[in-house]
Amino acid sequence: MNAACWKRQLPAEIACEEFDLALPGGNATRARVHGPAGAPAVVVLGGISADRRPAADAAAPGWWPALAGAGRPLDPARLRLISFDYLVGAPGGQIHCEDQAAFLARLLDRLGIARLPLLVGASYGGMVGLAFAARYRERLGRLVVISAAERAHPMATAWRAIQRRLVRLGVECGAAEQALVLARALAMTTYRTPAEFEQRFTGPPSDGADGIVFPVERYLLARGAAFVERIGVERFLALSESIDLHEIDASSIDTPADFIGVRQDQLVPVEQMRELARRYGGPCRLHEIDSPFGHDAFLKECDLLAPLVANSIDTIPGIERAAVTETA
Amino acid sequence: MNAACWKRQLPAEIACEEFDLALPGGNATRARVHGPAGAPAVVVLGGISADRRPAADAAAPGWWPALAGAGRPLDPARLRLISFDYLVGAPGGQIHCEDQAAFLARLLDRLGIARLPLLVGASYGGMVGLAFAARYRERLGRLVVISAAERAHPMATAWRAIQRRLVRLGVECGAAEQALVLARALAMTTYRTPAEFEQRFTGPPSDGADGIVFPVERYLLARGAAFVERIGVERFLALSESIDLHEIDASSIDTPADFIGVRQDQLVPVEQMRELARRYGGPCRLHEIDSPFGHDAFLKECDLLAPLVANSIDTIPGIERAAVTETA
Questions:
Q1: pTM score, two decimals?
Q2: Which value does ipTM take for this structure?
Q3: Which of A94, A185, A205 is opposite residue B162, by nearest beta carbon?
Q4: Is there a contact between B165 and A182 if contact means CB atoms under 8 Å apart?
Q5: Residue B7 backbone dihedrals phi, psi, to 5 degrees
Q6: Which of A158, A194, A282 is CA-nearest to residue B152?
Q7: Cβ–Cβ below 8 Å for A179 and B194
Q8: How far is CA B264 from CA A155, B294, B308, in A?
């Protein structure tokens, strides 16, 4: 076990453990195990800006309140939620979903989990889940993939490649943060949908000291500024590229799976989810949902996703059924 | 008449005249009249990167070979094609479609044309056409608008606002050209469609001295580099913003019109074209076409667009019907 390991009891008496762990090559990151020691383990992985904390604890909110937390399907009171901060690798070096999968295997070794009942991955986390199932088929009982396919769509690659070029230009010019703000602004346009923007952003531009600013522009700049607080340039570049390097052969995977696709997703068009399900080597179900939030549906559509994820959790051997709190 | 005026005969004996003209405020640009003096006049206006030359002459190709030129519907052998380089205005100042429309009115005065039989505008040119029809209703016989609506869609504004911010950041950093390349790369993703990119850009990235480059990325950078050769930063910023400032009330216009919308257009969603037709104050027809080229369909879909534009030309009083050359 590596250095900074700590355990503590939360107010709700739910165990939470965090520790650093390294791959043999030295690539290290921080992992988190949140839930009772005897409970079924579920690995939970999100997008490239997610961290190791899907569910809130007393110290901080989680990144996935829609599905993880008290009264949600991924409830640390009844499940042992396992996650980690994604590996980034050496600056300028490539990191692949397979590296994240290898780290996860090592993490499960460390936790003494020979076979994981369930992995739930959304966006980049879904790609990592597919990579894990492809390489460690005997170690995974069931896979839930939300909005992730066999490979990136060329249009999605185009949008991300422009973001990376923009950030690199900013770094060269000594304006890395401003560039990262714009890159995130661009990313947000691809995470959401024209329908949502049309609903939200009406009205004339404001004409201030910094020139004309349109309502949607102001929103995107604010989202970009918030992003810069949370993520560094190297991390962004490495994980963004990792998405575009992702490539798996669905026909080679036979882990029982649920795939959830969003018909309005601009980044992972639902056709790619259908293709994934069509080519998949194991038993799988494809669930298509409609959402004005597009790719971000996994963060937003509690009521649509909770029953689907709850159904997958119910397939875990020995799991107790639990009532999921209705959201208003 | 202003300074640099010239006339010459082309090999095909088609008259072509270019001259500079200014609005009363001093805002000046160059106009072009291409076709026989006695022929019916048609104003032809394109996107923000188009210039005053829709049809080729002996000296240079035109920007709209799909529809303008020998054997095409907008044939300078039988029509007098009128166009101009868009006004840009003072650096940092705003330019509106209404300014372009006012310039056009002055240009028609200069040419002694009290009433223009037809205006064909695509993209930004369609916005200018709508602005002209709204303000000079008695001077226009018929309007053809391809992929332009009453106002910009907020998602389209988002994409353009990011491009402008990016270019301004580049200017501040002394990297204006690199930034303009990236802005154009982003613009290209919005002009085209996911379906086209999926068809064209397959295969692995190349891994060279400048890192990983994906096929779609290489294409977009090449398009961006070609754009920088053609357009300056100030021009791009002014005209890009002009699109987002565009706002007309369709119910106030009664010029007979044909609207052409592209169902795959990401920038001007076909719903906006339907709304334009629904709210339009005059007689109009909406033609919807399918194209993998999305917003760029007006540059690409000769065979779909030629009959539609030809039909509008045929409504010009006294026009002779002409056979349109079939494209292969």
A1: 0.93
A2: 0.93
A3: A185
A4: yes
A5: -130, 150
A6: A194
A7: no
A8: 14, 5, 18
